[in-house]
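Bumping with the actual sequence this time:
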Amino acid sequence: MSATYPPASSTSSPLPNTTEGETIAITAAPTRRRRGGLIIQTGLVVCCSFTGLAVSMALGNGRDTNEPDPTHPSISESESSSPHEHDLAVHEPDPALEAHHIDMLIRSGNFDHALRQCQSVSRAAFGSDERLLIYREGLCLEALGRWTDARETYKKASQPNPDLPIAVWARALLGQARCALAKGDVATSQDLLNQVLLRSGDPSCQGQQILGECLFLLGRAEVQTLPPPPPLDPFDITAIAWPPLDGGLDRYLDWLPAEPPPTAHHEAKGHHNPDTAHHEAKGHPALDTAHHEAKGPPAPDTTHHEAKGPPVPDTTHHEAKDHPAPNAAHHEAKVQPTPDTTHHEAKDKSTPPESGWLAPFFPRDSVRLKQAEQPITDQLRAIGTSVGLKVKIEPKAEEKLAKITTAIDLERAPLSAVLTALTRKYGFSWRIAGGVIAIDPAGHPDEAAQRELAAQMLRQGLAVAPEHPRARAARINAANLDLGAGRRRNAAVEYRLFLENEPHAAESVYATYNLGLIELANENWHVAQARFLDTIDRGPESKWADLGWWWLGRTQLDTGDTAAARKPFQIAREAKTRVVAAAAELGTAACALLEGEDEEVREILRSHRVHNRESHAAMADFFESLLRYRNSPSEARGKRVTDALLAIGEGRLLGPAGFLLAGQAYREIGRYDRAAGLYDAAAELVRGPLAVRMTFEAAERYDQLDLRMEARKRYTVVAAVDQETWGLKAELRLADLAVRDRHGEECIRRCRALLGRKGIDSAEVLALMGRGYEFLKQYRLAAECFAGRVPAE
């Protein structure tokens, strides 16, 4: 079946979406210059009929259209519709054009069309080995979400072929690993990736991003082993945004090209590369390897094989039976780390290699080593020698790993990734301490250790492959892992650097959103508002704008400014994102409760459509329970309010405003001690106007219980941090405590400071001042105060 391609010329190439007869007619008709519309139309009809018939018969008989048919009269030269009849000949599609067309479709993201083209073109469209075409089929299937079919297709592309380099096999395995990750099969993907990692030093892989893609996918696999992050939730400030690590396949033909690298030299048979064969001419001893049949991908000619096929050593781990161990002394050791390191990775004090594509990336913590197939224990010791570290293997690990063989070919690969690839699959772990690599049985890793490993693997992938199609998403994910580990400041720095370096990237909205949550948690409300406004600008008419309006209202609510919070909440109530619209209704109800507008809350709840998330239903239930209690107080309804408060974490879902509402509810149902305790706990967690108010209300409770020391301590804090409403009220309460403690001078000093302040009742201040003068036995001044006049001393 032929395909549609861009025309090679304006006269000979068929037009898209037309039959060949139609194309000929359109080409030939303009050449007939006759007068009269009827004559021209008749000529066109005759031309189309005869030419179409000629082409059809030529195709049916397998002859060229320029060849005359003896059974039909030929058209004379004078009657020919075109002076270029040879241009009307039917030609076979050009394989180079077919290949170019497929690649254009893939790069444009038109994977469905590209897949149809791959399945219809010649199997030799991309050269003598059809694995290059099969790889593209797998890429299209993977992009279309047909991961099972894609993986089977990649398996075909990974079949051994001595005429193509290991890089072709490695790319196919990387495709299989991506499909396994997409289906959630992390263990299978890690096994495939480890095979690629251990052979990533082959010359055909250098400069082809094989190691970078491998490390990136290993990091992605580690992220997938973690518990899935919670969905974005307006009531969960810890639910940060995670950009997906998959995708970007439209760039893979350029990022991970399927063709062999032009710098790789391959012979027709045997794949003998002077850089990867025996190094006797350079002083390297020849490998003493075992004789075995080929079982895996093509490999450098570093072993002796039977004459049954191309030299393809097995790159997968398998049980060693009768294979004698090769000479373990054959390796290159160019990294010299300090042997007394106590870190998890070996430190390198040597200079980077003079040349090579990895020179800028791993100046330390890397391995450059080539070893033929031999037991893993020998490989580990060779690795230790190459990086200047001793290796200590626990007896059980020694016994098991000595039975498993593998070949390695490494070029500046991260030491940690290599050690993990050789040990974890078999139930062992490694650590570096005191210049020794210790191999021990692996315990069950906790989530914190898994997070650290995932962050390390992602950053290793970014170091080697900073131009990866999903590098931006990986940077955000690595910062998210720092945030999850409690390194909030480090995460914020990473987000800011990302926005400085990639201000227009699609992933920038993730950075602004997460930065806004961090600033809100840090109670930097003005900065948080700026971040959420930036989020709205970067994602208009999307879920990001909806979430941005919600959190913008939340920042206002956290400061106690309910009037300002209502405006963004109103916009969020009209959001297309249902979870945001439902949360905004509850946010507006919280504003009304704090303002004492119970009827407005009832109206909202009557029309509110509760979202199916548990947090939303719990918040709505609390509001309804509190209103029922206010309407008709009872012990049973008070118990219902208490249960509802516990379901919402005593207000934690709404931040400081939620704590305040919960404390007020406890006070209403008569649980004053619980309210004071909640306010004290909240004061340790939050700052700002609402924290001041909660501290004042807790002090009032202790004051009512005549616990003067506890009350005075809280009143003093409020007076120190707030110079407005609550601070002035606290000063008045402190003056009253001074009177009760018979401290006349303190009472008078505090009262004089309050006189004339806005929001303070002068009569109440003068009454307290008069009592203070009484304790000092200054009765005339006291009388002046009681008369409502400010005494003059």
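The tokens above came from a reply further down the thread. Residues 196 and 310 are 20 Å apart (CA to CA).
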